[in-house]
Amino acid sequence: MSKRALLEVIALDARDAAAAQAGGADRLELVSDMARDGLSPSRETFGRVRAAVDIPLRVMLRLADGFGAGDVDTLTGVAGGLRAEGADEFVLGFLDAHGDPDLVTVERLVAEIEGCRWTFHRAIDRAADRTSLRKQLADLPGLDTYLTAGSASGVDDGLPVLLAEAARRDEPGYEPRLLVGGGLRLDHLPALRAAGLDAFHIGGAARPGGWSAPVDAAAVREWREAVDG
Fold first, then answer.
1. Which PANTHER family does this one have (predicted)?
2. Residue 153 domain flag
3. How many other C-beta atoms lie within 10 A of the C-beta of residue 170?
4. Who's near 165: CB < 8 A, 6+ residues apart?
5. How much of the chain, in percent, has pLDDT values that exceed 90?
């Protein structure tokens, strides 16, 4: 297995996906509507992206703003539809009104995507208790990654948490890979890499022209080189 650090890039469509792969991305997070922080894409978009690239592709399961699940039946149907289209990796994460993991929703979705690997996304950064959340999710099949900035406000504030959690990687509940994203900058990388963190997630950083512009392969390549360095 390659020991190269993982670079994941947010893609909205096939053009983004192709540029991200050309720049050296290892994996994509496929979403729609970044004005709402990323919602589930359509089956048609997934199909076009899947046909455009051959790197792994994690698909967002989220239909509403915030970290509540909204209509769980509809969300489960979306998950099943994407699975039927060929999606085999996903991104999800929901909290209840108290900031605890919404286990009913998460478990329903995990059952729907049985056999797939998935990321619990930045809902962890708004959880009432990160350690408790990890313990409650620890036995769910397929969970192999937490996307986190260490803080709801981003990596600048969350860096101490990320470094502390990296040091606990062999403890129960801390085995899933830490995928660092959320206000991540190139100057954060040395401290993160020194702590043994080896997975990084970028969105706006891959788009110098902003979210109205496509992913730029050269920007992704800059991150690829920095992550590898």
1. COPPER HOMEOSTASIS PROTEIN CUTC, COPPER HOMEOSTASIS PROTEIN CUTC HOMOLOG
2. yes
3. 7
4. 130, 148, 150, 174, 178
5. 93
- 1-34: pLDDT as tens digits: 358 999 999 999 999 999 999 999 999 999 999 9
CA gap 34, 142 in Å, rounded:
26
Say which CATH number the domain at 175 has: 3.20.20.380
Q: Let me know if residue 188 belongs to a domain.
A: yes
CA 138 to each of CA 81, 99, 179, 205: distance values in angstroms, whole numbers, following the listed order: 26, 17, 17, 31
Mean pLDDT per 10-residue segment, the chain (229 residues): 85 98 98 93 98 98 90 96 97 96 97 98 97 96 98 98 96 95 98 97 96 97 97
How many whole angstroms separate alpha carbon 227 and alpha carbon 180? 12
List CB contacts of 1: < 8 A, sequence separation 6 or more: none
pTM for this predicted structure: 0.96
Q: What are phi and psi of 47, to 5 degrees?
A: -60, -40
Structural domain harbouring 143: 6-228
Cα separations (Å) of 26 from 20, 69, 87, 182? 9, 29, 17, 18
Residue 1 lies in a domain: no
Cα separation, 178 vs 201, whole angstroms: 10
